[in-house]
Amino acid sequence: MDNVTRIGVSLEPELLEDFDKLIDRKGYITRSEAIRDLIRSALAKEILKEDENAVVFGTITLFYSHHKGGVKERLMEIQHGHHQRILSSIHVHLDIEQCLEVLIVNGTVKEVRQLSDELGSVKGVTHRTLHRTPVSLGEEAMRAHIHEQ
Predict the structure, then answer these.
(1) Is 99 helix (H, G, I), strand (E, B) or coil?
(2) Contact 9, 35 (CB under 8 A)
(3) Would you give the DSSP letter of residue 134?
(4) 46 lies in the same domain as 79
(5) 63-81 average pLDDT score
(6) What's the count of helices (H) and strands (E) in the chain, helices before strands?
(7) Diameter over CA atoms, the chain
């Protein structure tokens, strides 16, 4: 690994024992990689809480009954209204009535949350989950992912 800084961490024996069990369960090779993952996760959570303008990529997962009056049409209308935020989608028929839709999205924390809230509030949507990860992309890379309006 290039250009790393080594640090020392003091832990109580019980905490270290619990951490080592977590490392084993998760399949980490080293404590260092597990610690790096925890730090990345904590930093990402802070960005999502504190910076409405941070750029994120993520997924919006929707479960709904396509037999509910107008739900498909309303979801499609919202998605077309936010086409610049939706990179891709997949639609799965779970059974004769229930559908699963997963949208791959990007934008600011605020934009993606607003899109998720709008989709989740449609009558007939029974479950909505939003997962986001902040990313640091150069402006040129972001332009490559934003569709013309």
Answers:
(1) strand
(2) yes
(3) E
(4) no
(5) 93
(6) 5, 4
(7) 60
Residues β-bridged to residue 101? 62, 91
Question: Distance between the two ends of the chain, CA-based, in angstroms?
Answer: 42
| Token pair of 117 as six digits | 């809230």
For residues 62 and 46, give the distance between their C-alpha atoms in angstroms, rounded to a whole number: 25
At position 7, the amino acid (one-letter code) is I
User: Cα–Cα distance between 23 and 33 in angstroms, integer?
Assistant: 9
- Mark whether 74 and 21 lie in a shared domain: no
1, amino acid identity: M
List the CATH number of the domain containing 69: 3.30.70.1150
Rounded to 5 degrees, φ, ψ at 9 are -130, 130
Neighbour tally for 104: CB within 10 Å: 14
pLDDT, mean over the chain: 90
Q: What span, in angstroms and rounded, lies between the C-alpha atoms of 66 and 135?
A: 34
Whether residue 67 has pLDDT greater than 90: no
- Picking from 136, 99, 92, 134, the residue whose alpha carbon sits closest to that of residue 113 is 134
Number of domains in the chain: 2
CB atoms within 10 A of CB 58: 20
